[in-house]
Design goal:
The chain is mainly alpha-helical. The chain has one domain. It is about 55% helix and about 10% strand. It is built from eight helices and six strands, in the order H-H-E-E-E-E-H-H-H-E-H-H-E-H. The strands form three sheets. Strands 1-4 form a two-stranded antiparallel ribbon. Strands 2-3 form a two-stranded antiparallel sheet. The structure holds adenosine-5'-triphosphate and magnesium ion (MG). The site of adenosine-5'-triphosphate has 9 residues, from loops.
């Protein structure tokens, strides 16, 4: 085992880091998430703030690999769809997401699923819109966290959930919470382009 550099988020923030350093760390957190998802296809699935260490040079240390989830390629492919939104115009992709992420075999026309998918689309369209130049998302904005919580509530109430999807959304929400507390500004859709090869430009 090696010692990882950096401080826990609260100690780091007590030193009043400059906004540009918060933004660099924020971008690196988003890169770290996409790296795990699209390259390693394995998630550090314990997004407790104490498991991330923040360094003055913009480096993020990840510790405590007590909960790790390996992802099947089709799970990664379907989750990428939330970012690329090709499913909106492609029925086969929609059916694959329903089958792979929500574990529903013949429910592609289920109105609850459709409503859940529309909520997902609205959320990503509002906060991670596919426009050029890629907008900068202000994670400090409470509106973003409220919308994220609302989306999670809708999906759970309508039972649009599977173990894989739960791990993914828990990790993404954990990261968003860190970005919110950090007060980072991140061009999320610019970063995702480096990771999704067939991302629509
Ligand atoms: N390799 C490491 N390098 C530097 N610091 C570490 C390392 N491993 C753990 N730590 C520090 O020790 C703390 C607790 O370690 P770890 O997360 O592995 O244990 P834990 O039992 O899960 O504790 P917690 O409930 O706080 O997450 C971490 O939050 C981190 O600050
Ligand atoms: Mg821990």
């Amino acid at each position: 085992m090696s010692r990882v550099r950096g401080s826990r988020l609260q100690e780091f923030l007590e030193r009043k880091p400059r906004q540009d350093l918060r933004d660099v760390l924020g971008s690196n957190l988003v890169r770290l998430f996409f790296f795990q998802l699209f390259k390693a296809q394995t998630l550090h699935a314990d997004p407790h703030p104490g498991n991330y260490l923040f360094d003055e040079d913009g480096t993020i240390g990840l510790v405590d690999f007590g909960c790790v989830k390996r992802l099947k390629p089709e799970v990664v492919r379907c989750y990428a769809q939330f970012w690329s939104r090709e499913w909106v115009h492609d029925r086969a992709l929609y059916a694959e997401i329903v089958r792979v992420l929500f574990k529903r075999e013949s429910a592609a026309k289920d109105p609850k699923i459709r409503r859940g998918m529309d909520e997902i689309r609205r959320f990503y369209d509002e906060f991670h819109p596919l426009v050029e130049p890629a907008p900068v998302l202000e994670f400090v904005d409470g509106k973003f966290m409220d919308a994220l919580m609302q989306l999670a509530k809708t999906l759970v109430t309508n039972r649009i959930i599977s173990p894989e999807f739960l791990f993914l959304s828990r990790t993404e929400s954990g990261m968003c919470n860190l970005l919110h507390v950090l007060g980072a500004r991140v061009a999320t859709t610019k970063i995702v382009r480096d990771f999704i090869p067939n991302y629509k430009r």
